[in-house]
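Hi X.,

You mentioned you wanted examples for the new student's onboarding notes, showing what a folding record looks like when two proteins sit in one file. Here is a clean example. The first protein comes first, with its sequence line followed by its structure tokens.
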Amino acid sequence: MTRPTKRRAAGALRCSIEEPSAKERLARRLNDIVQDRSLSQSEAAHVLAMPQPKVSAICNYKLRGISIQRLMRALAALGQHVEIVVSPSSPAARARIAVGTKLPHRAGAAAARAVDINAAFAGTRQ
């Protein structure tokens, strides 16, 4: 789920594609699980202990006002292990922020996805 964005660079407007944010990645995983379990929004609201309008907002990726912590709690309520790992970087591997998901075994091998979201910050540094 990439989204186009517009940034000003040296007086000119340029378009770029950003990777999904951490919130969007967590919401996607949450939505996948709710859908896989065939839960209605009302049922999901009960399981997640949040109002149905918040579940609707998450289902529609309207994530303003929904914290990463709330999304992590919701995933835990659905039996998911949510982990934040901080480790030192090395000269060979620059510091980065990544959000990943481990998916169930598919075709005999575990599939894992991670997104480097440094690109989102690249335009703000200098």
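Then the second protein repeats the pattern, sequence line and then tokens:
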Amino acid sequence: MVASYKDRPSHQPEYRLAYVRKWNRRVRVEAINHYGGKCFCCGEQRLEFLALDPINGGGNQHRKEIRKTCGSLHYWLKKNGWPEGFRVACHNCNSALGFLRVLPASNRAATTVISRRNRAIYLGRITW
């Protein structure tokens, strides 16, 4: 008796989920390696802590546009031939750059004032 196509391993949910996870990880590693493989600021190299960062900002809007077409930034970058304008940043440097507009691994003095929408940051303390 011939087995149904549903009995094949490739049609089992667990198999498909494992395949998709493996494929997504492979594309993510490929993207991170293409854009340098380490944080541009502090040099972190562990894959778990790295993310892709748009150099000129606007990542949130760009991500919303990509989600409509192909879903993943890593896949979109690969599909479009690895365009310029992206870099690798660890989550700490990426968050500090996004929220505070400072790079934690830089040698800039903490007393410098960085203003963003009428906010000032003095010595690491935010004043509104």
